[in-house]
Every structure is written in structure tokens, then in C-alpha cells.
Design a protein that fits this description.
Distance between the termini: 38 Å
Strand order of the largest sheet: 3-6-4-5
Number of strands: 6
Low-confidence stretches: 7-22
Helix content: 25-40%
Structural class: alpha+beta
Oligomer: single chain
CATH class: Alpha Beta
Number of domains: 1
Number of helices: 4
CATH superfamily: RutC-like
Length: about 170
């Protein structure tokens, strides 16, 4: 085999390998609502979002003193309302950065008991299903892996739930 042929073969192999590498995709091996598995190939981009609680409070409800003074007007809502606000905030943050909810692969959820002494996972799951999964109203059919941790308290009084998220995508 001539040197020119060897070079041509090496270039062809290199091109095929390059195409194969760029064709890798994030693989979702979901087995249902509570058992999604996700395989992330090398070279994926990652976007982390720190814990969010219900930041949708009205103006004048930001500090502890303001919340005390305004009472019920500053209630951050039940677990469902807080979940909705959190996922809406994640959606906006992702879209502002050129990402989407469909890129979310992991959620870590911290929930605390409400006034009845129970963690309202049903209320949270209702909000979650509006943003993730085949029946979502957001258009995002992907399910992230997730962990729900029961906690004693959260850093902001009134929060019943705080969520952190990780989004991953292949470079464009």
C-alpha cells in the first residue's frame, strides 16, 4: 500500500470517528415516572442551577420584616404553587441562557412539612408533571432523574420546597 493510500485511509478513518463522536446523544432510558435513567456521553455541556424556592412573591415580601408586616399577603403558597413558581423560574433562566427544560437531567428537591405536619409530595408532583413528562403542559416530555429529600427547615421562612437542577446537552 502506497504512502498516499495510507494517508487517505487514515483521513477517512479520522472523519468517520469524528462523525461517530459528534453523533453521540444523551440517552434517556426511562422506565417510568419514578425510574428515569440517563446516560451522558463525554463532551456534554453542563448547566447547574442552584436551589430555588418560590421567588414569585409580590414586591414588598422580600425581607423577613416585610413578610411579618404584610402577613397573609406575603404567603408563598402551598407546595403546588411553590413548585409551579420554581419550575417557571427554571424555565425562564434556561431559556434566557439558550437552554430549555428538555435539557434538565437531574433535580434535587428538599421539602419540609406544611402547617398540617406533612410534606405535600402530591402537590409538588402535580406541579412537576406540568413541566416534565409525557403529559406535561410545557411541551417537555423528558423526565429528569430526581431525588426528594425531607428536611426539617429551609433557609427562607415560608418556603416548603427548594429545588436545584442540572441541565446537560451536547454542544451545538
Amino acid at each position: 500500500m502506497s504512502n498516499l493510500t495510507k494517508i487517505a485511509v487514515a483521513l477517512l478513518i479520522s472523519c468517520v470517528a469524528s462523525l461517530t463522536a459528534s453523533a453521540q446523544m444523551i440517552e434517556r432510558t426511562s422506565k417510568g415516572f419514578l425510574d428515569p435513567g440517563i446516560v451522558i456521553p463525554a463532551g456534554a455541556e453542563t448547566y447547574y442551577m442552584s436551589g430555588k424556592g418560590n421567588h414569585a412573591w409580590a414586591e414588598g415580601c422580600k425581607t423577613r420584616d416585610e413578610r411579618t408586616a404584610k402577613g397573609d399577603q406575603c404567603k408563598p403558597g402551598d407546595m403546588y404553587a411553590q413548585g409551579q413558581a420554581i419550575f417557571a423560574a427554571f424555565k425562564t433562566q434556561l431559556e434566557d441562557a439558550g437552554w430549555s427544560l428538555s435539557d434538565v437531567v437531574m433535580l434535587r428537591i428538599f421539602g419540609i412539612p406544611g402547617e398540617d405536619g406533612k410534606v405535600d409530595t402530591g402537590g409538588f408532583n402535580k406541579a412537576y408533571q406540568e413541566y416534565f413528562g409525557e403529559n406535561s403542559t410545557s411541551g417537555n416530555t423528558n423526565l429528569p432523574s430526581r431525588t426528594f429529600v425531607g428536611a426539617h427547615t429551609l433557609v427562607v421562612p415560608g418556603w416548603l420546597v427548594e429545588v436545584e437542577a442540572r441541565a446537560i446537552r451536547m454542544p451545538k
